[in-house]
């Protein structure tokens, strides 16, 4: 099972890299429509993401910067959940401040995820996991690992679509 999880992750990460490696500095904060979720630098110099506990209707279109923040937020939470670390809330995860730094953070998370997957045993994969579903969901560590791959694939596709739309408008 672990080897299958690793292969699926590597496939998803390859898709992410196609888009991450093609991004230009100006791609990250480009807003394709007026209703956007993005990141903003506060007076303290910290970049914070737009976020709501209850998703608004209509859902704002995210910028690539917001998506890179979002990936860092959920992926670092998944790693913390599986390793006994402290899960940070959305307001506790700052955006890196520029595109190349954000991509570097994602690449570091990918490397940490590879290490974590390599350490898991079949027994670990069948162990109960509460992230991201909650305590009563009856999910396992394998479910969390599979969710990471799906979420990464979804976010990579969103980044790619935004990158292609911006390129087509130039």
How many E strands? 6
Strand order of the largest sheet: 1-4
Approximate strand percentage: 5-15%
Give the % helix: 40-55%
| Mean pLDDT value | 95
Please write out the topology.
Layout: H1 2-20, E1 36-37, E2 39-41, E3 47-49, E4 61-62, H2 64-83, H3 99-119, H4 122-125, E5 128-129, E6 139-140, H5 141-169
Parallel strand pairs: 1-4
Antiparallel strand pairs: 2-3, 5-6
Helix pairs in contact: 1-3, 1-5, 2-3, 2-5
How would you explain this protein's 3D organization?
The protein has 170 residues and is mainly alpha-helical. Helices cover 55% and strands 8% of the residues. It is built from five helices and six strands, in the order αββββαααββα. The chain has helices at residues 2-20, 64-83, 99-119, 122-125, 141-169; strands at residues 36-37, 39-41, 47-49, 61-62, 128-129, 139-140. The strands form three sheets. A two-stranded parallel sheet has the order 1-4. A two-stranded antiparallel sheet has the order 2-3. α1 packs antiparallel against α3 (99-119) and α2 (64-83) runs parallel beside α3. 28% of the residues are buried.
Protein traits:
5 helices; two-stranded parallel ribbon; single chain; 170 residues
Quick synopsis:
The chain has 170 residues and is mostly helical.
């Amino acid at each position: 099972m672990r080897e299958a999880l690793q292969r699926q992750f590597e496939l998803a990460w390859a898709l992410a890299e196609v888009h991450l490696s093609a991004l230009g500095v100006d791609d990250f904060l480009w807003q394709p429509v007026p209703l956007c979720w993005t990141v903003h630098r506060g007076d303290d110099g910290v970049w914070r993401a737009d976020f709501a506990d209850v998703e608004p209707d209509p859902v704002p279109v995210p910028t690539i910067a917001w998506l890179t923040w979002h990936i860092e937020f959920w992926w670092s939470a998944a790693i913390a959940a599986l390793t006994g670390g402290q899960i940070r809330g959305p307001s506790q995860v700052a955006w890196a401040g520029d595109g190349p730094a954000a991509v570097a953070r994602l690449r570091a998370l990918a490397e940490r995820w590879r290490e974590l997957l390599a350490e898991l045993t079949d027994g670990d994969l069948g162990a109960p996991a509460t992230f991201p579903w909650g305590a009563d969901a009856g999910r396992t560590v394998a479910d969390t690992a599979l969710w990471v791959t799906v979420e990464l694939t979804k976010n990579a596709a969103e980044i790619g679509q935004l990158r292609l739309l911006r390129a087509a408008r130039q």
